[in-house]
Amino acid sequence: MSRHARQRLLDVLAALDAIEAHTRRGDLSDGLVFDAVRVRLIEIGEAVKAVPEEVLAGEPDLPWSEIARMRDHLAHRYFDTTHSIVAATVTQDLPELRRAVQRLVETTED
């Protein structure tokens, strides 16, 4: 894995850490927490877009293209973003994303 790809995966982990910190401070019904989480989800999507597909292929069960598309939706259609979608993403999808990204980081070299 290139250093660039590894750094983008580490960026995903950093954004996941930030999301956890934000949600410990408050619920997504708090507008500031919601906005902070939304921005970090955008960062995750942007980082995923920068990781080569051959690297992401190491975790084929994750919907990488949907993660990237969610970034586009959050960044460009922010008025159409519902709390329930963000909440479901945080509670249901991000734990598996973290595990997958950690495996990718651990199984590849700089």
Helix content: over 70%
Q: How is the main sheet built?
A: none
- Our measurement of the CA-to-CA distance between the termini, rounded to an integer number of angstroms, reads 6 Å
**Rounded average pLDDT:** 91
Order of helices and strands: HHHHH
| Number of helices in the DSSP assignment | 5
Provide the gyration radius in Å.
14 Å
Shape estimate: globular
Outline the low-pLDDT stretches: none
* Class based on secondary structure composition and strand pairing: mainly alpha
Number of strands: 0
**Proportion in β-strands:** under 5%
Itemize the secondary structure elements and their pairings.
Elements: H1 3-25, H2 31-50, H3 53-56, H4 64-76, H5 83-106
Account of the protein in words:
- It contains five helices and no strands.
- The radius of gyration is 14 Å and the shape is globular.
- It has 110 residues and is mainly α.
- Helix 1 runs antiparallel to helix 2 (31-50), helix 1 (3-25) packs across helix 5 (83-106) and helix 2 (31-50) crosses helix 4.
- The longest helix is centred in the C-terminal third of the chain and has 24 residues, at 83-106.
